[in-house]
Each structure stands twice: as C-alpha cells, then as structure tokens.
Amino acid sequence: MRIGNFFTIFTTIILTAICLYYIHSSVFKNNKKTLNLGLDLKGGISIILDVSEKDLLKKLSENSKNPFFIKALEYADKKKKENPNGDYLSFFINFFNQLNIGLSSPDLFGNRLNIEKIDSNSLNSEVEAFLRKRIESSIISIQNILRSRIDQFGVIQPNIQRIKNSNRILIELSGIKDLDRIKKILEKKAELHFFEIYNFQEVFSYFNEINKFFDRKSNKKKSFIDLLNISNLKSSYIVGLVHKKHQKVVSEFLNSIEATEALPYNLHHVKFLWGTKSLLKNKYLQLFAVKINNEEKSTLLNGDIVTRAYKSFDSFNKISVNIKMNQEGTKKWKIFTEKNIGKNIAIVLDDLVYAVPLVQSVIPNGMSQISGHFSIQESNDLVNVLNAGELPTSVNIVQTDVVGPSLGRESIQKGVKSFLIALFFVFFWMIFYYSIPGLYSDIVLIFNIIFIFGILISMNAVLTFPGIAGIILTLAMSMDANILIYEKIKENIKNKISIFTSIHNSYTLQGALSSIIDGQITTLLCGVILFYFGTGPIQGFSTTLIIGIITSVFTSTCLGRLLLEWHIKKYKNIIFSNKMMFMNSFHRIQNIQLDFLSKRKWSYVISSILLIISIFSIIFQGLNLGLDFVGGRSYVIVFDRKIIPEKISEILSKTFVEKEKPSFPNVKTFGNENQLKIVTKYKIWEDNNKVDEEILQKMFISLKDYFPVHFEFRDFKNIEKDKPLGILSSEKVEPIIAKDMRYKSFISIIVSLIGIFLYILIRFKKWQFGLGAVVSLIHDSVIVLGIFSFFYRKFSLLEINQSFIASLLTIIGYSINDTVVVYDQIRKISKTTMFSTMKETINKGIASSLTRTINTSFITLLVIFIIFLFGGTSLRSFMFALFIGVSIGTYSSIFIAPSIVYDFCKKNIVK
Asked: How does pLDDT run across 812-833, given as a tens digit for each residue?
C-alpha cells in the first residue's frame, strides 16, 4: 500500500469518527459543542451597540468646560460621521496636537480623578495611551455587565462579541421577542453601589402589615408571607426566599401603591432587591432589603471608589476577594465600615445583590477582604463586578434586527428542502455523466458533507441561511475538482496511456492538481476577505465557504484517488463516461478545435455594449441600495388578505411627514401576496430610540383598516410564534453604520482584485495573465451591477446590500477559478508544444478545458437555480446575482481573459 493511501485512510477514519461524534452529540444534545442556528433560522433579536467614547472622555475629564475640549469633541464627531471606519480617539487627540495643547492640564485629564496615572508633566502620547487603556477596559467591562444582564433572561447560548477593530458589541439572542425590554436593559447605565442592609427583624412587622393587601391585590391562593418562605431563611440579612415563578408577583406587589404607602418611618429608605445566586436546586431567589443613601453625594459609595479587585487563597485554599480603594474611597469606606461593624453590607450592580459581606472591623486604609464560601465562578463574577465599577460610558443601539419564529421556521424548511433537492441533482448528474467514477465522486461528496458539519459543530459555529447557501454552493463547486481530475484521466487515456498511469499522473501538479490548487486558493482568498470585512450572516457564509474549500481539496484529491485506485486493483478497468449516444456527443466537445481568438473582436463588441449599458444605467438610473448601505428601518408585515404595495406606500407617505415633506417608504411584496416589506428612512438621523415606538404606532394607526376590528397595537408589534398577523420581523440600521458597511464592501472588492492579480502574477510569471484575470473580473462585476440597476424598478428583489456584496465576491471567486483553469491548460500546452504559435496554444488551452468548464458551470447553475426556486424570499436576490454572475463569469473565462492575454503579449510563444 502506498504511504499516501495509508495517510488518506488513517486521516479519513479519524476525521470521520470525530465529525460523526460531534454530529451525534449535537443532535442528541449531550455535549457542549453544537451547531447553533442563526436568528434567521429560528427567530430572535440581533443588536449592535456602540460604546460611546465621547461620554467616556467627558467622564474622565470630569465634564470639562474647557472650550478646546468642547471643540475637540465636536471635531471628532464631525470626522467620525465623514469616516465611520476612523478612530474617534485619534480624531480627538489630533485636534489638540494640531494646536500644540497639552492634554495633562488640570482642566482636561490631569485632574484628581486620574491623579494616579497622569501628572502635569505627562506628554500627550502618554495621556493617549492612558485613554486607550481606559476605553479598552471599559468595553471589556461592558461586555461582562451586558452578559450578566442577559443571563437574567435565561437565554440559551447568547452570542455576545466585540466586532473586531471597533468599539461596537454584537448581541444575538435567539427566541427573544420583546425588543423594547431588551433595549431598556441593554442601554441602562450600569451602577455599582455599596449599601447598608435591613435585617429580617426590621422588616417583618412591615411584611405582616402589607400581607392583608396581598389577597386583594393578586388573587393568589398563598399569602404574601407564604411566598417569602420565611421558615427556610438561614441568615438574618435575607428577608425572603421566593420561588422563581413568584418573583414577578412579589416585585410588583412590593412596588405597588398600597405597599409603598404602608412603609413605616424607619423604612422610608428601603429598596427591595433580588440576589444573583439561586438556592434550593436553583429554583429560589434571595430577597434583600437595602438602605438607599439619600444624603449628599460626597458620602455616596459607588463603583468609582474601587481601584482594583482580585482573588486570594488562604492556607486551607479558601477563596477571598480583596478590594483596594482610591484616596477618596478610603475616607468614605472608613466612615461606612465604622458605622456598620458587626453588620452585613450589600454589593449591588444593576440592582442585583452580588455579595453580602460582614464588616468585622473599621477599615482605615482602603484595603478590604471579603471572605465566604465562594466557588471559583462566584469569586470571578464578584471580581469582575467590582472591577467594572460604575459603567464609565453609555451605549447606544445603532442596529437592530428582529426575526419572528414564524419566518425562522419557514427558513429552516426551505433551507433543508433546497439542500436535499440540490444534493439529489448533483448526485444524479455525476453518475449520469461519469458512470462509476461519478458514483465515487458522490461518495466523496458525502464525506465532505460530514466533515463540513462536524467542523462547524466543533467550532460552535452559528449556521445562518446564507451559511446553508454557502454549503450548497461549496458542494457544487467541490465537484469541479473531481471533474478536472476525470477530464485529465480521459485525456491521458485518449493519448494511449495506461489507466493506472493516467490516474496517477492526473493527481500530480503536472496533471490536474495545479489547476485545483490555483482555483481553490483564489476562491479561498475571496472567502477570507469576506470573513474579515463581513459581519453576522456574511461571516456565516464565508465560514462555510472556507471550510468547504479546505475539505473539498482533501476529499477530492486524496479520498477520490483512493477509491479509484481500489477499483482498478479489484476490477482492472474503469470507464469514465456514459455510453448513451447523447453523452458521447457531449464528451466529444473537447475534441472540437475552434478558433476562439478569431472571434475575440465580436466578444469585445458584445462586452463593450453590455458594459456601456451597465455604466449608463448605474450613473443615470442608479442602484437600489438596501438598508445595509443607506440606513433606515424595515418591517415585514403579514396581513389577512392580498395587499397592493403602491396603496400602502401612498398611505404611509402621508403619515411619515418630516419637515413638512412626505417621506415615501419603499413597499414591496415579500414572499406571499399578503406579506409586505416596508422600508422607511423617516427620522433615521434622530438619535433617539423612542422614534422606533413612534413609527410603529403611526404605522399601526395608518394600516388599522387592513386588520380585523379587535386587532390591537400590542398584537401588531409583538413578535410571537405562529403569529398570523402583524410584524414578523424588523430591522434598523443607522446611517453611520450604513456608511461603514459601504466603505468595507468597497475595500473588500478592491482587496480581492489586488490579491488575485498578485497571486496570478506570481503563479504564471506574466503580468498579462494577471491583467486578463482582473479585467474579466471587473467586466463580470460591472455587468452584474448593471443588470441590477437596469431592472430593479421592475423586480423589487434586485437590491444592493451585504448579501449582494457576498454574492459579488463569490462570483469573483468562481470566475477566477474558471479563468485559472483555462490559464493552467494554456501553460501546460505551451510547455509540451514547443513550436506552436501563441494563438494555437491559447485556442488549444480553451478547447481542452471546455468540457470541464461547461460541466462545472452546469452543475453550479443548476444548484443556484434550485436554491432560487426553493430557498425562500430572503435568498432570491443573492441567488439571482450568483446565477447571472456565474453565467457571465463562464463566458469571460473563455472569451475575455484569454483574449486580453493574447493581445497584450508581444512574444509569439507563451512560455
């Protein structure tokens, strides 16, 4: 057995076992590793929060009134709007550097708040380093605090991550429907406080007093005292132990008018708070009564006084949490501890009690130690809370996307359906076209699917609808490697080379391997760029594309070879074509010797006409820019009857009036005739989330006649499972985010073209090859854009958004793959036919790759068409762009790229 075969068998067995283990574990939920479904597949909320550097700078300067400070903030605001991808702090610092003003001035950042880090002699670069460190630590703290808040929802596997190279945080919550509640919780400014505690004896008489109001207020079988489970209390500083299902009832009652009016004088400063720790099999929550300090601000104890918190272990490995105070905090802490010797105090963040340490003595030096029965996780949480302190800056919601469960369930059904249908046709075509080798390519494809899903699960990846499309497209394109190899084997057999040697030679760099590697690397390059510049679903698409390319190369070149060699050893022969008359005619295409280059002038004329029409349409008719690129709000609404979009647009234009001018929304049918997608830019520049509610109310009032009589506003806006009427999903993108997306999309395309040019230049050692490839790619991209521009008024799905950019980069990857295969054939022929002219060499190269090009394009286009038909409304624009792009890319790889190489090469022979 060859060493290579042993390696293939060993690797395949190990990979298959690992991937099947992960797939099994994910299906039966007995492992932490799982393939998470994206919001577009199961519904939920996606939010992007912007951490305000401006507010942080104000806080660190103690709200400086220095006129230069105020002008610097205004300057940074302006520059950030002009360049959303720029760095706010750099803009701010540059303003002072240009005027040669020191940032360490006492009325800027050299104040008492920062006295331990900045003095009057600190350079601007040192102050900048300090500010950057504070911004970074603030973002980390905010992530921790937001995660703690979200955990209160009981959300399974929330996705909370910082968007790379930015001060933005992405939060994805599946199954959550109440956007208003989420917004309030996320945007609320976190506050850390230290409070005195009322013990149970101090509040019991009050509980007895208000108990008589409870039955009348709540109509519960149990009394208020019963719900508190007093008999199970283990500590005097806990005033109740309430079952989670009764938490809401108890909170509402304690905050009711009857309960607050009954407060005795000695409890006028009481506030009832819940603890973070659950007890008794994780079913009960602790209730605390803390004393709110209404004295002067100078005596308040909040998170600002903590400079550092850390863990320590004693000789018995018992965990303690140590706290170090600043100079101001040390004075306050001494007074506070002196007042509460022998008592417990509460450490509270976001109105949740994290710890209730006992004060054993006066602490005069600002160094405190909290001891108790802490677990590792509990001590870590407490350290994070203490180090976070009062949230140093505000957060603003700049993008939201709400997908209802109904749309999510429909997406899963359509995604699975399109996947199975596409898979069936790929399987069928390969067997139909290549007979037994086609069957082996299908076996290879099955292993490829197992590897892709196994790797995705091992990464805890999030599978989105574009991700499913990426897998399907990858599988179709992975057939290309098998087709290249099979066509090379057929060519060798035709040249009277033995079947075993033909197979062996086809799996070398001189055979089909160089074409496979070159084509896959260029496509991989586009996938990596997509992953780097994209977010959310686009990253999901690029992730599956990257994984699929890597696994495809292994399965087709290693596993495919193993199967063919096994077959030859057992059966001594194998046929690489179907014997049907129709198929024999199809196989003879590669024997046709056409003079492609003689037709290049016609190709130039046809392409020039298409390019001119496209450019004129883009300039004069424009493009239908989606929400991602212009900003605004969109809503998918379902009605109980067929709706005419133009009529709804007319009604809403009278409702959305801004500065005495109507704001015309974009209204179009979305899927079924009773579903509409409404996009509006009304008040999008107003930085106020109350506008969201205003728009919903205005929309509901305007469209109320299109719903049943008893249909209420609450039913209209809430997103629920199996919802028959109202809003199914909503999305909001602020203009600054849209501008950032446009910038990143433009950069990603430019970087792709430059990267491809450099790679082709290095591999083929002639700039003419790189030029031909890039010109053909620009040709493909402009024509696709032109078609979207020319027809978008007739077909509403032709929208330029993030998905379109993903499709454009995929088109670039596919087209360059086609072009590289043709180039590779030209290079190989030039080395074997020393005395051929350049024209003959290029024509032979195109002809020898023609069968592969047509075959691969047919499979890819078939798969794209199936997804277009069965994949659902949200993917149709994406698939339409791919269909047009792959068609044009196939044409350009045959008629444009080789023609440019020929016209720009001065030598008569391609070396």
From this structure: 877 887 888 888 888 878 777 6
Q: What would the two tokens of residue 464 be?
A: 């989105």
| CA pair distance 416, 468, nearest whole angstrom | 8
Map residue 193 onto helix, strand or coil: strand
Query: For residues 198 and 239, is the Cβ–Cβ distance under 8 A?
Result: yes
Place of tokens 């010109």: 775
**Per-residue pLDDT, 296:** 46
State CA 758 to chain mean position distance. Answer: 29
User: Is the model more confident about 806 or about 178?
Assistant: 806
> Each residue of 580-609: b (16+ CB within 10 Å) or e?
eeeeeebbeebeeeeebbeebeebeeebee
Is residue 117 exposed (0-12), middle (13-18) or buried (19+ Cβ within 10 Å)?
middle
CA distance 454 to 524: 20
Give the model's confidence band at 491: pLDDT under 50 very low, under 70 low, under 90 confident, else very high. Answer: confident
Q: How confident is the model at residue 197 (pLDDT cuts 50, 70, 90)?
A: very high
Which pair of tokens denotes residue 161? 């991550």
Average pLDDT, the chain: 79
Distance CA 607, CA 889 (A): 12
Comparing 69 with 527, the larger pLDDT belongs to 69
Q: How far is CA 861 from CA 171, 289, 510, 890, in A?
A: 36, 67, 29, 11
CA dist., res. 378 & res. 652, Å (int): 52
DSSP string computed for 672-729? STTEEEEEE-TTTT---THHHHHHHHHHHHHHGGGS-TT--HHHHH---TT--SEEEE
pLDDT of residue 911: 46
**What percentage of the chain exceeds 70 in pLDDT?**
84
Cβ atoms < 10 Å from Cβ of 685: 11
Question: Which residues contact residue 265 at a Cβ distance below 8 angstroms, ignoring those fewer than 6 apart?
Answer: none
Which tokens in the block code for residue 841?
A: 């060499």
